[in-house]
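Chain A, query sequence.
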Amino acid sequence: MHRSAGLVLLALAVFFAALAPLLRWYAFPRLAKIPAGQYQEMVLEAKPATLLDYGTLTAREVGKVTIVQTLRGNVEESDRIERSAGRDVVVWDTLSYVQGPDGKMVSQIPERYIFDAHSQEPVHATGESVDGDAVRREGIEFKWPFLTEKRDYAYFDAQTRTSAPIHYKGTRTFRGLQVYYFEQTVPWTKVPYPKKMPVPGVDATTLEKQTGTTRWYTTKRMFWVEPVTGAPVNGEEIHREELRGGTLLGGRDKVTAFAGHVKMREDYIDYTVGLVSSQRRLVLLMTSFLPWGFLTLGGGLLTLALILEARGRRPQGPAPAHMAPGPEPARTS
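Chain A, predicted structure.
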């Protein structure tokens, strides 16, 4: 009886011990993925800010500049690219829409970002673009990988169309979550004009050629990233843009086009922290709680099986002898 129970426990121990790494290293990469049809909206504000008045071409201080970032998963394009890429692919069509205090458009830049659904590595395919220009991304954008590490990552900058390191600067606590803080400074760089300008009839593609006036940009980019999910729970930029030289400025060397400290709006921070907290538990279930739980359970079952096996093999002592009645004494006459 002990031997049969021990064999059953041994089989269960082997099953759970094998299931632990299988769940972590096989199931997790296949189950933890960005959904192809994800939709997300984020609102950021710079209060106050400096903004160019295109009517007078002078910079003025305004109470607020709002940046609305929308992200929409393109399922049809994901399916098309997956057939040739041979892996799960996500296609995000994003739009960064900047509006002044009067609600009028300052600029808008669309992007198409194509990446691996699990690792967040770029997938190069037709349609990868920024503001209609084909690009070839290196590194991450918008989101860090699951199980983010304490190291620098290459981060793609949409304005310059280039990638540069974004540096890990330490572990912090943000709204009750342990997060990794990352920082990147993009030095002053000449960048193209947005194709959609706030001035009617202006062709942004020929503006620099016609006037000789160039557009320059610098930013200090900061992210607070929840490392289990790789999702930023807060982001800020100290952002500056200038127009320099040429006939457009009437002899001036430069003029500020936009300057401000851009921050996520509070209600969007609260929503993001709540969403990431719930997703964090699901990722931990697959990477930590269940694998370690199964491994511990397997170890316990193995110990119990060995105990039962040892008891089954324990030698039994000699059976007690039954006293038989001795012969009766001989009678003497």
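The longest strand covers residues 39-53. The CA atoms of residues 100 and 206 lie 25 Å apart.
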